[in-house]
């Protein structure tokens, strides 16, 4: 199959973690095994050929990573994947994500936030694994499930919580809400409600980075953009159009698929002709990687390579992270379709528990230290709620302020003056 | 061939017109008069901001200048020692404006299908790729939604892209990005990100291009909050609006018309821009206000010739700014004539004319002596057959009839 050749070709690039390197297209076989952890749906995945399967083949190189980890378990050796400092940093970030989202649920049910709120519980490894490797000037584009991306990128918990409460102190002055987290300072470019519509924006940010380097001659501009989106988005036109453009122009972007197997109530396997999303990368001329998204260290290793590739100007990468959301699609989702056994399987692979285990077993941290972090995060989240609670709601005068960057855009009124000069405008009582 | 003119001394100008038939298909025509010698005005455009002293009412408009475009031509208006300018076609005017802005600011870039090596399907970007390179004048694959979104992302991160829809109708595919991101991102980000993007392209009913290539998207986009829409109609305002749109911090959609690209006019050599929010006074008059934009302006002016011969004195305003409306210029006119006729190429339902009718009724109802008449295209997919296409859009004869009816 042509795709097999192209995957093989791209795996020979300095990218050790491409699991498709030696498998043929028949690696679809992994789905055959009924107890495969990847099979989330009740639908049986039919084999098209009768090759032998190998469960670990799909994630073979990442297995190698954790093999290395297991071997060195008892030694405090420099070939550990992370240092203590990094480990604690990762742990703190994931705990922050989890605690924050749990608090969101509480606050929602107490009537402090409204609308559609999509929580990230269970997927923390992807956000932490990728975003903690970025610099401040690198950009992140997310979807409606963006609270934790915002937190990982550095947006203060206070600002995010205030935004959720709809207060003026929110990162978007209360005008965006749960699904539209933006931060100019931290280069978080949203927060998008429609799936797929953020991917072109991310492509544009990557284009700017290339433009700055090549046209504006800012030679050291190597800003990378990460685009996060889900499995449902991978059937959307904008995804494919942007894969094409990014590869065509070698844009410094990484497309990160958070494949949690479910698009609200639609199983990925019921919606997608070829569920292997990572395979779609090579079809456009970029490496396609599959990684265990419940393991932050594995994600981090893959992320290092992908981000490094982009930074060096070698072009985009498509990374498919197999992950899972412990809660429903949103707080309004009764979550009745998913098999409790599947949920239990993934709960056992909780990324935070896994990292905790790793840190302790490798003597990188003690229980006490981790407990201190958890306590600190609890305080941070409590403080965020307090801050948000005490913050003022937007006054009426805020209504018209940000419709246009240049408020002349409201036009000229019957009296000859620009409408934005009318005092009613600054009061927010003018009717536009 | 018709003469395109604007300004004072309309009667005199009319008398100088060579013929009665208007055929926009002919590629070249030249105004009989040299605009540079017209008293009191800089060039072809007489703007409501008082470059021409029509009457004391406009004096207040003159104070607007501090906010409006500051063109050097304004202050130098009185002295006709200004250079004679240069003649060019409308698409060349757009090209010139674009090129000047690209030279002025290296962040300005162009994206679209066939804008680079091909020079643009209507040659608006001809030669730019050679001059500025393939990255600044980017030939995109055929993916409107995505490359418009890419333009928006680039605008958010510091560039000033000009996105071309090869035909405005193709931008229907980009509606997601234009509505959600272009219009809304500044607001939903709490003002953190600006989107100084220009989206432009040819639209309107052409010569038997078929239904899908003859669309008027201004009526579809007009509800989107956070964007501005302008329509150019002459080489002068094409260049001026292009430059103003590029310099604006707001997202601007610039509507061009397929049949107007070959209009010729003499425009100033010096740097100038046209105010995005202002309407253009084409022909002052007393009896009726005719509001129009884009190609219909020429049908209106052709009808105006007939009307003048019949003894009417229509005031013709090219509204130019489709969103927001320049209620000052329009209002002053309504207050003077008390009769309004809107002539547009949009469809009747939900078109620009419909919005304009509502705006005028809301603001100036007391000044109207008769209900507002709105002539729009039929609510019909534009047919291919020439005879049918002709009756889909408003023709000068209909305009004449409408004015006669209004002025009874």
From TrEMBL, chain A:
Q: Which SUPFAM superfamilies match?
A: Thiamin diphosphate-binding fold (THDP-binding) (SSF52518)
- Domain of life, source organism: Eukaryota
> Which cofactor names does the annotation list?
thiamine diphosphate
Show the catalytic activity.
N(6)-[(R)-lipoyl]-L-lysyl-[protein] + pyruvate + H(+) = N(6)-[(R)-S(8)-acetyldihydrolipoyl]-L-lysyl-[protein] + CO2
Q: What is its EC number?
A: 1.2.4.1
Read off the InterPro entries from this record. DH_E1, PDH_E1_Alpha_Subunit, Pyrv_DH_E1_asu_subgrp-y, THDP-binding
- In this chain the Dehydrogenase E1 component domain maps to 93-394
Supply the alphabetized keyword list.
Oxidoreductase, Pyruvate, Thiamine pyrophosphate
Q: What class of enzyme is it?
A: oxidoreductase
Q: Which NCBIfam families does the record cross-reference, listed alphabetically?
A: PDH_E1_alph_y (TIGR03182)
Q: What does this protein do?
A: The pyruvate dehydrogenase complex catalyzes the overall conversion of pyruvate to acetyl-CoA and CO(2). It contains multiple copies of three enzymatic components: pyruvate dehydrogenase (E1), dihydrolipoamide acetyltransferase (E2) and lipoamide dehydrogenase (E3).
| Subunit structure, as described in the record | Tetramer of 2 alpha and 2 beta subunits.
What protein does this entry describe? Pyruvate dehydrogenase E1 component subunit alpha
Q: Which organism is it from?
A: Hibiscus sabdariffa
From TrEMBL, chain B:
A Pfam family: Transket_pyr
Q: What is the lineage of its organism?
A: Eukaryota, Viridiplantae, Streptophyta, Embryophyta, Tracheophyta
Entry's CDD domains? TPP_PYR_E1-PDHc-beta_like
Where do the Transketolase-like pyrimidine-binding domain residues begin and end? 88-263
Q: Which domain of life is it from?
A: Eukaryota
* NCBIfam families, A to Z: PRK09212.1
Name this polypeptide is given: pyruvate dehydrogenase (acetyl-transferring)
Q: Which reaction does it catalyse?
A: N(6)-[(R)-lipoyl]-L-lysyl-[protein] + pyruvate + H(+) = N(6)-[(R)-S(8)-acetyldihydrolipoyl]-L-lysyl-[protein] + CO2
- The enzyme's first-digit EC class, named in words, is oxidoreductase
Q: What does this protein do?
A: The pyruvate dehydrogenase complex catalyzes the overall conversion of pyruvate to acetyl-CoA and CO(2). It contains multiple copies of three enzymatic components: pyruvate dehydrogenase (E1), dihydrolipoamide acetyltransferase (E2) and lipoamide dehydrogenase (E3).
Recorded hits in SUPFAM superfamilies, A to Z, give: Thiamin diphosphate-binding fold (THDP-binding), TK C-terminal domain-like
Keyword presence, Oxidoreductase:
yes
The record lists the organism as: Hibiscus sabdariffa
Q: Which EC numbers characterise this protein's activity in its record?
A: 1.2.4.1
Q: Which UniProt keywords apply?
A: Oxidoreductase, Pyruvate, Thiamine pyrophosphate
Q: What PANTHER family does this protein map onto?
A: PYRUVATE DEHYDROGENASE E1 COMPONENT BETA SUBUNIT (PTHR43257), PYRUVATE DEHYDROGENASE E1 COMPONENT SUBUNIT BETA (PTHR43257:SF2)
């Amino acid at each position: 199959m042509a795709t097999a050749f192209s995957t093989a070709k791209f795996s020979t690039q300095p990218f050790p973690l491409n699991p498709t390197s030696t498998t043929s297209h028949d690696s679809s076989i992994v789905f055959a095994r009924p107890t495969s952890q990847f099979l989330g749906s009740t639908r049986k995945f039919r084999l098209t050929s009768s090759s032998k399967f190998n469960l670990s083949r799909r994630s073979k190189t990442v297995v190698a990573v954790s093999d290395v980890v297991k071997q060195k378990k008892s030694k405090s050796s420099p070939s550990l994947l992370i240092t203590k400092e990094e480990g604690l940093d990762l742990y703190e970030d994931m705990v922050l994500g989890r605690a924050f989202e749990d608090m969101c649920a509480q606050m929602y049910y107490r009537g402090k936030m409204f609308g559609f709120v999509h929580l990230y519980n269970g997927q923390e490894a992807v956000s932490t694994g990728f975003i903690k490797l970025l610099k401040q000037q690198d950009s992140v584009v997310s979807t409606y499930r963006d609270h934790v991306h915002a937190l990982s990128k550095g947006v203060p918990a206070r600002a995010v919580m205030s935004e959720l409460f709809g207060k003026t102190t929110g990162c978007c002055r209360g005008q965006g809400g749960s699904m539209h987290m933006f931060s100019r300072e931290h280069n978080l470019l949203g927060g998008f409600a429609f799936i797929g519509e953020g991917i072109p924006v991310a492509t544009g940010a990557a284009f700017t980075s290339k433009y700055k380097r090549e046209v504006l001659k800012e030679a050291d501009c190597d800003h990378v953009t990460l685009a996060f989106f889900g499995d449902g988005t991978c059937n959307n036109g904008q995804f494919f159009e942007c894969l094409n453009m990014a590869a065509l122009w070698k844009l410094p972007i990484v497309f990160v698929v958070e494949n949690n197997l479910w698009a609200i109530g639609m199983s990925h396997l019921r919606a997608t002709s070829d569920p292997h999303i990572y395979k779609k990368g090579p079809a456009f001329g970029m490496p396609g990687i599959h990684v265990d998204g419940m393991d932050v260290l594995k994600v981090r290793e893959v992320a290092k390579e992908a981000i490094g590739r982009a930074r060096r100007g070698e072009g985009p990468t498509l990374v498919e992270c197999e992950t899972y959301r412990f809660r429903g699609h949103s707080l309004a989702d009764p979550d009745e379709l998913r098999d409790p056994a599947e949920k239990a399987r993934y709960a056992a692979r909780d990324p935070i528990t896994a990292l905790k285990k790793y840190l302790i077993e490798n003597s990188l941290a003690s229980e006490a230290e981790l407990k201190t972090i958890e306590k600190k995060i609890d305080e941070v989240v409590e403080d965020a709620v307090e801050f948000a609670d005490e913050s003022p709601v937007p006054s009426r005068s805020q209504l018209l302020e940000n419709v246009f960057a240049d408020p002349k855009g409201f036009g000229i009124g019957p009296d000859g003056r620009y409408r934005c000069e009318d005092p009613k405008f600054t009061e927010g009582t003018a009717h536009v | 061939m018709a003469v395109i003119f604007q300004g004072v001394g309309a009667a005199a100008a009319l008398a100088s017109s060579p013929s009665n038939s208007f055929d926009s298909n002919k590629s070249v025509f030249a105004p009989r008069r040299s605009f540079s010698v017209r008293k009191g005005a800089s060039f072809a455009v007489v703007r409501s901001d008082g470059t021409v002293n029509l009457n004391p009412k406009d004096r207040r408009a003159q104070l607007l200048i501090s906010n409006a475009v500051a063109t050097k031509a304004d202050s130098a208006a009185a002295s006709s020692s200004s250079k004679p300018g240069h003649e060019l076609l409308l698409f060349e005017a757009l090209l010139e404006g674009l090129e000047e802005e690209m030279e002025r600011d290296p962040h300005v870039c162009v994206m679209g299908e066939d804008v680079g090596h091909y020079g643009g399907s209507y040659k608006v970007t001809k030669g730019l790729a050679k001059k500025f390179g393939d990255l600044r004048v980017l030939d995109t694959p055929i993916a409107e939604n995505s490359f418009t979104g890419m333009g928006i992302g680039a605008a958010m991160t510091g560039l000033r892209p000009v996105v071309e829809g090869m035909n405005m109708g193709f931008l229907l595919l980009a509606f997601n990005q234009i509505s959600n991101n272009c219009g809304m991102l500044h607001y939903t980000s709490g003002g953190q990100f600006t989107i100084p993007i220009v989206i432009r392209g040819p639209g309107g009913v052409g010569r038997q291009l078929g239904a899908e290539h003859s669309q008027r998207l201004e009526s579809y986009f007009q509800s989107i909050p956070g964007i501005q829409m302008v329509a150019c109609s002459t080489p002068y305002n094409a260049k001026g609006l292009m430059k103003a749109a590029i310099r604006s911090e707001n997202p601007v959609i610039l509507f061009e018309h397929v049949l107007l690209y070959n209009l010729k006019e003499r425009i100033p050599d010096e740097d100038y821009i046209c105010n995005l929010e202002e309407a253009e006074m084409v022909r002052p008059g007393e009896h009726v206000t005719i509001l129009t934009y884009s190609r219909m302006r020429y049908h209106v002016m052709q009808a105006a010739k007939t009307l003048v011969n019949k003894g009417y004195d229509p005031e013709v305003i090219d509204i130019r700014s489709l969103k927001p409306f320049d209620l000052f210029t329009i209002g002053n006119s309504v207050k003077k004539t008390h009769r309004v006729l809107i002539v547009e190429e949009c469809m009747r339902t939900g078109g620009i004319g419909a919005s304009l009718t509502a705006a005028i009724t809301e603001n100036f109802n007391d000044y109207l002596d008769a209900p507002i008449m709105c002539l729009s295209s039929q609510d019909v997919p534009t047919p291919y057959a020439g005879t049918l296409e002709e009756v889909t859009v408003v023709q000068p004869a209909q305009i004449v009839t409408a004015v006669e009816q209004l002025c009874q």
